[in-house]
Protein backbone atom coordinates (compact mmCIF):
# COMPACT_ATOMS: atom_id res chain seq x y z
CA UNK A 1 0.00 0.00 0.00
CA UNK A 2 1.40 3.40 -0.95
CA UNK A 3 2.20 6.09 1.59
CA UNK A 4 -0.42 8.41 0.07
CA UNK A 5 -3.18 5.78 0.27
CA UNK A 6 -2.21 4.87 3.81
CA UNK A 7 -2.22 8.54 4.86
CA UNK A 8 -5.62 9.10 3.27
CA UNK A 9 -7.06 6.05 5.05
CA UNK A 10 -5.66 7.18 8.40
CA UNK A 11 -7.00 10.71 7.93
CA UNK A 12 -10.47 9.46 7.08
CA UNK A 13 -10.38 6.97 9.93
CA UNK A 14 -9.30 9.59 12.45
CA UNK A 15 -11.96 12.06 11.36
CA UNK A 16 -14.66 9.38 11.39
CA UNK A 17 -13.62 8.18 14.84
CA UNK A 18 -13.69 11.70 16.28
CA UNK A 19 -17.09 12.43 14.72
CA UNK A 20 -18.49 9.17 16.10
CA UNK A 21 -17.12 9.87 19.57
CA UNK A 22 -18.51 13.41 19.77
CA UNK A 23 -21.90 12.37 18.38
CA UNK A 24 -22.07 9.52 20.90
CA UNK A 25 -21.33 11.86 23.79
CA UNK A 26 -23.79 14.51 22.60
CA UNK A 27 -26.52 11.96 21.81
CA UNK A 28 -26.22 10.17 25.13
CA UNK A 29 -26.30 13.45 27.05
CA UNK A 30 -29.44 14.61 25.25
CA UNK A 31 -31.25 11.29 25.54
CA UNK A 32 -30.55 10.49 29.18
CA UNK A 33 -29.20 13.18 31.53
CA UNK A 34 -27.00 11.74 34.23
CA UNK A 35 -28.00 11.82 37.87
CA UNK A 36 -25.76 13.52 40.43
CA UNK A 37 -22.82 11.48 41.62
CA UNK A 38 -23.40 9.30 44.67
CA UNK A 39 -19.81 8.34 45.41
CA UNK A 40 -18.73 4.85 44.40
CA UNK A 41 -21.05 3.92 41.52
CA UNK A 42 -18.92 1.45 39.57
CA UNK A 43 -16.33 1.89 36.82
CA UNK A 44 -18.73 1.95 33.85
CA UNK A 45 -21.29 4.21 35.53
CA UNK A 46 -18.52 6.56 36.64
CA UNK A 47 -17.19 6.75 33.08
CA UNK A 48 -20.63 7.50 31.65
CA UNK A 49 -21.42 10.21 34.20
CA UNK A 50 -17.95 11.75 33.82
CA UNK A 51 -18.42 12.02 30.05
CA UNK A 52 -22.05 13.19 29.80
CA UNK A 53 -23.19 14.20 33.29
CA UNK A 54 -23.53 17.74 34.59
CA UNK A 55 -20.11 17.90 36.19
CA UNK A 56 -20.15 21.70 36.60
CA UNK A 57 -23.44 22.40 38.41
CA UNK A 58 -22.39 21.58 41.98
CA UNK A 59 -18.70 22.13 42.82
CA UNK A 60 -19.40 20.97 46.40
CA UNK A 61 -19.49 17.38 45.05
CA UNK A 62 -15.72 17.60 44.55
CA UNK A 63 -13.52 16.09 47.26
CA UNK A 64 -9.71 15.97 47.67
CA UNK A 65 -7.73 12.92 46.57
CA UNK A 66 -4.69 11.67 48.48
CA UNK A 67 -1.53 9.83 47.40
CA UNK A 68 -2.22 7.22 50.06
CA UNK A 69 -5.54 6.19 48.46
CA UNK A 70 -4.21 6.07 44.87
CA UNK A 71 -5.16 2.40 44.39
CA UNK A 72 -8.36 2.40 46.43
CA UNK A 73 -10.22 5.68 45.86
CA UNK A 74 -11.61 7.51 42.86
CA UNK A 75 -11.46 4.84 40.14
CA UNK A 76 -15.18 4.00 40.41
CA UNK A 77 -16.37 7.55 41.19
CA UNK A 78 -17.49 10.09 38.60
CA UNK A 79 -15.24 13.03 37.85
CA UNK A 80 -16.51 16.44 38.99
CA UNK A 81 -14.99 19.70 37.79
CA UNK A 82 -12.86 20.90 40.72
CA UNK A 83 -13.30 24.32 42.34
CA UNK A 84 -10.92 27.24 41.96
CA UNK A 85 -7.61 27.08 43.80
CA UNK A 86 -6.87 28.48 47.23
CA UNK A 87 -6.03 31.82 45.60
CA UNK A 88 -9.24 31.85 43.56
CA UNK A 89 -7.75 31.04 40.14
CA UNK A 90 -9.54 28.49 37.90
CA UNK A 91 -8.04 25.18 36.81
CA UNK A 92 -7.53 25.74 33.08
CA UNK A 93 -5.18 24.65 30.30
CA UNK A 94 -2.60 26.82 28.52
CA UNK A 95 -0.67 26.37 25.31
CA UNK A 96 2.78 24.77 25.46
CA UNK A 97 2.41 24.14 29.19
CA UNK A 98 1.80 21.08 31.33
CA UNK A 99 -1.80 20.35 32.30
CA UNK A 100 -1.59 18.88 35.79
CA UNK A 101 -5.39 18.81 36.11
CA UNK A 102 -8.28 16.99 34.40
CA UNK A 103 -10.66 18.64 31.92
CA UNK A 104 -13.65 17.76 29.74
CA UNK A 105 -13.17 19.74 26.57
CA UNK A 106 -12.01 19.85 22.95
CA UNK A 107 -9.48 22.30 21.57
CA UNK A 108 -8.39 22.77 17.97
CA UNK A 109 -6.18 25.17 16.09
CA UNK A 110 -3.02 25.62 14.08
CA UNK A 111 0.70 26.17 14.58
CA UNK A 112 3.10 27.88 12.19
CA UNK A 113 6.82 27.26 12.61
CA UNK A 114 9.31 29.56 10.90
CA UNK A 115 12.17 27.26 9.99
CA UNK A 116 15.85 28.10 9.95
CA UNK A 117 17.64 27.60 6.64
CA UNK A 118 19.94 24.61 6.65
CA UNK A 119 18.41 23.20 9.84
CA UNK A 120 14.62 22.94 9.56
CA UNK A 121 11.75 23.71 7.15
CA UNK A 122 8.79 26.03 7.57
CA UNK A 123 5.88 24.03 9.03
CA UNK A 124 2.10 24.28 9.24
CA UNK A 125 0.31 21.94 11.65
CA UNK A 126 -3.39 21.73 12.53
CA UNK A 127 -5.26 19.34 14.77
CA UNK A 128 -7.61 18.70 17.67
CA UNK A 129 -7.03 17.62 21.26
CA UNK A 130 -9.86 16.02 23.25
CA UNK A 131 -9.82 15.43 27.01
CA UNK A 132 -12.16 12.67 28.21
CA UNK A 133 -12.37 12.09 31.99
CA UNK A 134 -13.56 8.59 32.92
CA UNK A 135 -13.35 8.88 36.71
CA UNK A 136 -11.82 11.02 39.43
CA UNK A 137 -8.53 9.16 38.95
CA UNK A 138 -8.40 8.42 35.21
CA UNK A 139 -8.63 10.43 32.01
CA UNK A 140 -7.72 9.88 28.34
CA UNK A 141 -6.24 12.63 26.17
CA UNK A 142 -6.36 12.26 22.37
CA UNK A 143 -4.17 14.39 20.09
CA UNK A 144 -5.48 14.13 16.52
CA UNK A 145 -3.24 15.83 13.91
CA UNK A 146 -5.34 16.47 10.81
CA UNK A 147 -2.70 18.32 8.78
CA UNK A 148 1.11 18.33 8.87
CA UNK A 149 2.89 20.30 6.15
CA UNK A 150 6.58 21.08 5.66
CA UNK A 151 8.06 23.54 3.15
CA UNK A 152 11.77 22.84 2.57
CA UNK A 153 13.99 25.81 1.76
CA UNK A 154 14.51 26.02 -1.99
CA UNK A 155 12.02 23.18 -2.54
CA UNK A 156 9.51 23.03 -5.35
CA UNK A 157 6.51 22.41 -3.09
CA UNK A 158 5.33 21.55 0.39
CA UNK A 159 5.07 17.98 1.68
CA UNK A 160 1.62 17.61 3.25
CA UNK A 161 0.02 14.70 5.07
CA UNK A 162 -1.35 13.43 8.35
CA UNK A 163 0.64 13.80 11.59
CA UNK A 164 1.43 11.27 14.33
CA UNK A 165 -1.63 10.41 16.43
CA UNK A 166 -1.05 10.47 20.20
CA UNK A 167 -3.02 8.91 23.04
CA UNK A 168 -2.26 9.77 26.66
CA UNK A 169 -3.76 7.85 29.59
CA UNK A 170 -3.61 10.21 32.57
CA UNK A 171 -3.80 9.38 36.27
CA UNK A 172 -4.63 11.86 39.04
CA UNK A 173 -2.07 11.18 41.77
CA UNK A 174 -3.43 13.66 44.31
CA UNK A 175 -5.60 16.76 44.37
CA UNK A 176 -6.37 19.48 46.91
CA UNK A 177 -7.84 22.92 46.34
CA UNK A 178 -4.36 24.38 46.01
CA UNK A 179 -2.40 21.64 44.19
CA UNK A 180 -3.10 18.93 41.61
CA UNK A 181 -0.52 16.26 40.69
CA UNK A 182 -0.94 13.86 37.77
CA UNK A 183 0.92 11.29 35.69
CA UNK A 184 0.65 11.33 31.89
CA UNK A 185 1.69 8.32 29.78
CA UNK A 186 1.83 9.54 26.18
CA UNK A 187 2.09 7.05 23.31
CA UNK A 188 3.01 8.51 19.92
CA UNK A 189 2.00 6.34 16.96
CA UNK A 190 3.75 6.47 13.53
CA UNK A 191 0.69 7.44 11.46
CA UNK A 192 2.39 10.33 9.65
CA UNK A 193 4.97 10.56 6.86
CA UNK A 194 8.73 11.00 7.12
CA UNK A 195 8.57 13.95 4.71
CA UNK A 196 6.67 16.04 7.26
CA UNK A 197 8.84 15.05 10.24
CA UNK A 198 6.42 12.36 11.40
CA UNK A 199 6.24 8.57 11.25
CA UNK A 200 7.86 8.03 14.66
CA UNK A 201 6.70 5.81 17.52
CA UNK A 202 7.63 6.95 21.01
CA UNK A 203 6.71 6.73 24.68
CA UNK A 204 6.75 9.86 26.87
CA UNK A 205 5.88 9.38 30.56
CA UNK A 206 5.85 12.57 32.62
CA UNK A 207 4.82 13.90 36.01
CA UNK A 208 2.74 17.12 36.01
CA UNK A 209 1.56 19.56 38.66
CA UNK A 210 -0.71 22.63 38.94
CA UNK A 211 -0.68 25.03 41.90
CA UNK A 212 -2.58 28.16 43.01
CA UNK A 213 -1.76 29.26 46.55
CA UNK A 214 -2.13 33.01 46.26
CA UNK A 215 -4.49 35.36 44.41
CA UNK A 216 -4.40 35.04 40.58
CA UNK A 217 -0.95 33.44 40.38
CA UNK A 218 -0.83 29.91 38.91
CA UNK A 219 2.35 27.84 38.62
CA UNK A 220 2.48 24.56 36.70
CA UNK A 221 5.11 22.26 35.26
CA UNK A 222 6.24 18.79 34.24
CA UNK A 223 9.28 16.50 34.18
CA UNK A 224 9.64 13.32 32.17
CA UNK A 225 11.36 11.39 29.41
CA UNK A 226 10.89 11.06 25.66
CA UNK A 227 11.81 7.61 24.28
CA UNK A 228 11.44 6.94 20.53
CA UNK A 229 11.51 3.23 19.63
CA UNK A 230 10.47 2.91 15.97
CA UNK A 231 11.69 4.65 12.80
CA UNK A 232 14.26 6.39 14.97
CA UNK A 233 17.02 6.76 12.37
CA UNK A 234 14.58 7.80 9.62
CA UNK A 235 13.10 10.59 11.74
CA UNK A 236 16.18 11.66 13.69
CA UNK A 237 14.49 10.85 16.98
CA UNK A 238 16.42 11.43 20.21
CA UNK A 239 15.88 9.93 23.64
CA UNK A 240 16.00 12.65 26.25
CA UNK A 241 14.87 14.39 29.40
CA UNK A 242 12.08 16.93 29.06
CA UNK A 243 10.68 19.51 31.45
CA UNK A 244 8.60 22.65 31.48
CA UNK A 245 7.72 25.31 34.01
CA UNK A 246 5.07 28.00 33.52
CA UNK A 247 3.61 30.85 35.54
CA UNK A 248 0.58 32.99 34.75
CA UNK A 249 -1.60 35.67 36.31
CA UNK A 250 -5.40 35.85 36.03
CA UNK A 251 -6.51 39.44 35.56
CA UNK A 252 -10.30 39.31 35.18
CA UNK A 253 -13.27 37.29 36.54
CA UNK A 254 -14.99 34.64 34.45
CA UNK A 255 -17.98 36.84 33.53
CA UNK A 256 -15.96 39.65 31.90
CA UNK A 257 -16.73 38.45 28.36
CA UNK A 258 -14.91 38.46 25.92
CA UNK A 259 -12.01 38.94 28.32
CA UNK A 260 -13.18 36.59 31.06
CA UNK A 261 -10.55 34.61 32.98
CA UNK A 262 -7.93 36.55 31.04
CA UNK A 263 -4.53 35.12 31.88
CA UNK A 264 -1.12 36.11 30.58
CA UNK A 265 1.63 33.56 31.01
CA UNK A 266 5.24 32.63 30.35
CA UNK A 267 6.30 29.03 29.82
CA UNK A 268 9.83 27.58 29.69
CA UNK A 269 10.44 24.25 27.94
CA UNK A 270 13.64 22.17 28.05
CA UNK A 271 14.72 19.05 26.15
CA UNK A 272 18.10 17.46 26.88
CA UNK A 273 19.14 14.49 24.69
CA UNK A 274 20.57 11.61 26.70
CA UNK A 275 21.47 9.12 23.94
CA UNK A 276 24.52 8.77 21.72
CA UNK A 277 22.79 9.00 18.35
CA UNK A 278 24.50 12.27 17.44
CA UNK A 279 28.00 13.72 17.97
CA UNK A 280 26.60 16.29 20.41
CA UNK A 281 23.72 16.58 22.87
CA UNK A 282 22.81 20.24 22.79
CA UNK A 283 20.21 21.39 25.31
CA UNK A 284 17.09 22.82 23.67
CA UNK A 285 15.51 25.64 25.68
CA UNK A 286 12.59 27.85 24.63
CA UNK A 287 10.37 30.53 26.15
CA UNK A 288 6.66 30.88 25.31
CA UNK A 289 4.63 33.96 26.23
CA UNK A 290 0.91 33.38 25.78
CA UNK A 291 -2.66 34.18 26.82
CA UNK A 292 -6.08 32.65 27.30
CA UNK A 293 -9.49 34.37 27.46
CA UNK A 294 -13.15 33.37 27.90
CA UNK A 295 -15.19 34.45 24.87
CA UNK A 296 -18.55 33.36 26.28
CA UNK A 297 -20.82 30.29 26.05
CA UNK A 298 -18.01 27.89 27.06
CA UNK A 299 -15.73 29.09 24.24
CA UNK A 300 -12.14 30.16 24.86
CA UNK A 301 -9.37 31.66 22.73
CA UNK A 302 -5.71 30.76 23.30
CA UNK A 303 -2.54 32.09 21.71
CA UNK A 304 1.21 31.74 22.18
CA UNK A 305 4.58 32.45 20.54
CA UNK A 306 7.47 30.08 21.24
CA UNK A 307 11.02 31.40 20.81
CA UNK A 308 14.18 29.26 21.08
CA UNK A 309 16.81 30.52 23.52
CA UNK A 310 19.67 28.07 22.93
CA UNK A 311 21.63 27.74 19.70
CA UNK A 312 21.77 26.12 17.24
CA UNK A 313 18.03 25.76 16.73
CA UNK A 314 15.99 24.29 13.87
CA UNK A 315 13.45 27.16 13.94
CA UNK A 316 13.26 30.91 14.53
CA UNK A 317 9.84 31.09 16.21
CA UNK A 318 6.56 29.17 16.48
CA UNK A 319 3.07 30.77 16.58
CA UNK A 320 0.00 28.91 17.88
CA UNK A 321 -3.68 29.88 18.01
CA UNK A 322 -6.43 27.60 19.35
CA UNK A 323 -10.20 27.73 19.91
CA UNK A 324 -11.49 25.70 22.83
CA UNK A 325 -14.94 24.41 23.80
CA UNK A 326 -15.75 23.08 27.26
CA UNK A 327 -18.59 20.55 27.25
Cα shape:
globular
Overall tally of domains: 1
Percent range of helical residues: 10-25%
- The CATH architecture comes to Beta Barrel
> In angstroms, what separates the terminal alpha carbons?
39 Å
- Top CATH class: Mainly Beta
Q: Pick out the low-confidence regions.
A: 1-38
* Strand content bin: 35-45%
The CATH homologous superfamily: monomeric porin ompg
What fold name goes in the CATH topology slot?
Porin
Output mean pLDDT: 88
Question: If you had to describe this structure to a student in words, what would you say it looks like?
Answer:
The chain is mostly beta strands and 327 residues long. It has one domain (83-326): Porin. The protein is 13% helix and 44% strand. It has helices at 3-31, 43-52, 232-235; strands spanning 105-115, 122-133, 138-151, 159-161, 166-175, 179-188, 201-211, 217-230, 240-250, 260-273, 284-296, 299-308, 315-326. Strands 1-2-3-5-6-7-8-9-10-11-12-13 form a twelve-stranded antiparallel β-barrel. It is globular and about 60 Å long.
Amino acid sequence: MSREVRGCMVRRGGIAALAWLLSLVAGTAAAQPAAPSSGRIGVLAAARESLVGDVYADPSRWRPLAWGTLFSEGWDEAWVSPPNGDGGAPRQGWLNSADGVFYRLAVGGFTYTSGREGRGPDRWDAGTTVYLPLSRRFEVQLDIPFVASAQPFGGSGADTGYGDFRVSPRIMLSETRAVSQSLSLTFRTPTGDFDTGNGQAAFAPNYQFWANWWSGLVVRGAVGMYVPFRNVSETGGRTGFLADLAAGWYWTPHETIPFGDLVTLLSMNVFQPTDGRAPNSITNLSLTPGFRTHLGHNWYLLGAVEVPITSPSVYDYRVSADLMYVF
